Amino acid sequence: MESDALRIGTAEREEAARLLADHFGMGRITPDEYETRVTDAYAAATLGDLRPLFRDLPPPHPGFFGPPPVPMAPMPPPMPVYAPPPLPAYAPQYSYRSKTVAGVLQIVLPFGVGRFYTGQIGLGVLQLFICMITFGFGAIWPIIDGIVLLANGGLDAEGRPLRP
User: Fold this and answer.
1) Comparing C-alpha atoms, which of 9, 136, 22, 107 is closest to residue 64?
2) pLDDT per residue over 96-147, tens digit each?
3) Which of 17, 138, 146, 153 could form a disulfide with 107 if both were Cys (CB 3.0 to 4.6 A apart)?
4) What is the C-alpha to C-alpha distance for residues 3 and 1, in angstroms, rounded to an integer?
């Protein structure tokens, strides 16, 4: 059944008359138009009889007319299946260098090789210099540094955490 052919009741007629009175109070229709439209509203039997009474008037319209058609916004294109999900903003950006490799290099070659690997050239040169001037006794520093790298990780030259 088409919506304009639906029968209406007293409540719908009274709502239409009340809204017509609002439009009359705002000066949108003259007293003669108001009287004619209210008479037609109380005589209406279907929704199709009420629609012409509000066709040239701005909202408000009776609620039982239904919501006005909303233009559809275009849908965004679907995300490709093969794309990885976006990373959250708080996820750390890891270095491409590994903390395990850096720590093992510091322990096995205790003269700053692990720090050269992480890109911290200045620290690596300092550890190499200390090992050379102490005739190898300063190698304790790179060994402890390697253990710390293995246990806690560290940062590369750009300040990013080393990959686990």
Assistant:
1) 9
2) 899 999 999 999 998 889 999 999 999 899 999 998 899 888 889 899 999 9
3) 146
4) 6
> Could you give the CA distance from residue 144 to residue 122 in angstroms, rounded to a whole number?
18
Closest CA to 104 of 150, 160, 152: 150
Cα dihedral angle (102, 105, 108, 112), rounded to 10 degrees? -100
Do the Cβ atoms of 104 and 150 come closer than 8 Å?
A: yes
Closest CA to 111 of 87, 83, 81, 133: 133
CA–CA dist 130, 92 (Å, integer)? 33
* C-beta separation of 99 from 153 below 8 A: yes
Averaged pLDDT of the chain: 86
Structure tokens given for 12: 């719908």
